[in-house]
Amino acid sequence: AVWDLAIRRNANVMIIGDRDAEVIKAHEYLYKPLLMIAQSPAEFLSMLFAVPLDARTLEEPISSVFHAMDQYQLGAVSRDPDFVSERNAFVEEIIRRITENPLLAPEHARFVRKHLDWLIKAQTLAGWVAYTGAFSHAIGQAKRDDIYDEFRNRYDPELLIENGADPVIARHPYFSFLSSDEAFLRLKQLFQSGNVYYFVGDIFDPRVYIAVGRVANRLRRKVSGYLLSNIVDYVAELYGRMLRHSIEPRRLLHSLLSLV
């Protein structure tokens, strides 16, 4: 993710873009407030999925945190009323901290509450078999499935190693924003600085690159890197466009980058 590129390069400006406006809303109104009030990677995860963790677990390596959340999930889908009341109390604490943060607005608190209330309700009403994606959630009107699996598959170092990743890379303290307290602090401070910008657009639209260049020029910064997520989806679409228009790949890339 672009977050991870930013912390690896210790960037002081970050521009996030997507074709889907709902994804941009999630960055600003869900991820940003939780990043800004969390004190550690583990606490960020626990708040994002409304899973209260004890102080000892919050000090564990991130793989152990994911494991603890797995165990909590098993209890949560059992419809035990104690789990519901505990999680609701945790949500109230999260909302209180967002509300008290002077850099955040009431809209942030409302969005986070909507997300967490939906998540707890969905998980409580659905059984383990019928509702396999216990941490799925809806952002605005658009539904994004399995956000928990998405985070774990991308950020759990032991799972990555099990699936063939290089242990040295997967366990590096700056592999991702969740890899260490130092990496998390870099991303948190970037959001706190106000130097995070958004756009809704398509990477095949030259205006995107022109806009990024204008932001960089206005801030008197140099664009140090681009990160393209969802590589398989974009490559498939790019290949289709090149076939339809007989465009040579190297020429297309050069043309896009020359606009910056």
What features would you describe in this structure?
By secondary structure, this protein is mainly α. The chain is 62% helix and 6% strand. The protein has 14 helices and four strands. It has helices at residues 2-9, 21-37, 41-48, 55-58, 62-76, 81-100, 106-125, 147-155, 157-162, 167-170, 181-193, 206-219, 231-245, 249-257; strands at residues 14-18, 137-139, 142-144, 196-200. It has a two-stranded parallel sheet. A hairpin with a 2-residue loop joins strand 2 and strand 3 (142-144). Helix 1 crosses helix 11 (181-193), helix 3 (41-48) packs parallel to helix 5 (62-76) and helix 6 (81-100) packs antiparallel against helix 7. The chain is globular, with a radius of gyration of 20 Å. Residues 127-145 have low confidence and may be disordered.
Question: What's the topology here?
Answer:
Blueprint: H1 2-9, E1 14-18, H2 21-37, H3 41-48, H4 55-58, H5 62-76, H6 81-100, H7 106-125, E2 137-139, E3 142-144, H8 147-155, H9 157-162, H10 167-170, H11 181-193, E4 196-200, H12 206-219, H13 231-245, H14 249-257
Parallel strand pairs: 1-4
Antiparallel strand pairs: 2-3
Short description:
This protein has 260 residues and is mainly alpha-helical. It is 62% helix and 6% strand.
